[in-house]
Amino acid sequence: MRFSLFIHMERWDDSISHEQHWQNLVELVQLAEAGGFSTVWIGEHHSMEYTVSPSPMPQLAYLAAKTSTIRLGSGTIIAPFWHPVRAAGEIALLDVLSGGRAEVGIARGAYQFEFDRLMGGMPAADGGEYLRELVPAVQKLLQGDYEHEGKHWQFPVSTAVPKPIQAPTPPIWLAARSPETHDFAVANGCNVQVTPLMKDDREVEDLMNKFTTAVDAHPEVEKRPEIMVLRHTYLHSPDDPEGWKVGAAGINRFYRTFSSWAFGKKAPVNGFLDPTPEEKFADRPEFELESLHRNAMIGTPAEVTARIRSYEQMGYDEYSFWSDNSLSFEEKKASLQLFIDEVVPNFR
């Protein structure tokens, strides 16, 4: 089992500058690298302060100069927002700048808020069409000359400039939930990223079953793709039996804010939206702190080790420590350090 860090700048008010948030992120990435993490993942979101990341590429390029071993992953770029030629060129450039450490995560997109602003109101669910067209085009552009005549993009013979160090391409990962996306990923030689979000470990097992079904359906793919599971993670000391409540409350706030962006009708103010009030979730047990304690990866090092061991036994190749949780930098750093000190060594 490998470990990776999934991270964004989170800004919940004006009390901390973007510059300070960025320096905090760099420090956490360097801590993860020193602790043996294999990869850092940074995604793409637009015009929302609680996930400050209009493009992962410049952030990862900066981190390339501040690190030496950790791999640098887009987790993920949103397929409809990227022209294949631009995507291939920026991926290859990141690989060159980092000495061959680029990883490429691609997704169809989720927030209708973003599609209303970047895609003229196109339904976010239609993003899957763009993903299925983008992925093979980028794969071919990274390897040489390629002409494309598709539904969403058309261009004459082009290629990625520069060319990536990793051949034939840097590893490509697709965010998958449906059986169809799992199947497309495996058929195209891509690895898979999954997240159970607020659901329990039965969802983790179900996602693995979808992946296994896709692998079994494609015996022509000689090398089995890899699969990564992403979970909100918070560790507390066994000396503080109530310490889990801090993590659960932070993740509750994160998902109530996610709900405001994904389903709310209020317009943001200068990039901020308040979390949906708790009373709106009175009939949603998954938002209760005790439920989040059970379902998110919250617990003592021993408890977290046991659950991750079960993921390893299911067949997962990578566990990604999702640090976005609305908590302070100091709380995040303490949790990550505890994970490094008392969980990571159990898997060496």
From TrEMBL:
Gene3D superfamilies: Luciferase-like domain. Keywords: Monooxygenase, Oxidoreductase. Residues 1-317 form the Luciferase-like domain. One of its GO terms (cellular component) is cytosol. One of its GO terms (molecular function) is oxidoreductase activity, acting on paired donors, with incorporation or reduction of molecular oxygen. SUPFAM superfamilies: Bacterial luciferase-like. InterPro entries: Bact_Lucif_Oxidored, Luciferase-like_dom, Luciferase-like_sf. It comes from Brevibacterium celere. It comes from the Bacteria. Pfam families: Bac_luciferase. This is Alkanesulfonate monooxygenase SsuD/methylene tetrahydromethanopterin reductase-like flavin-dependent oxidoreductase (Luciferase family).
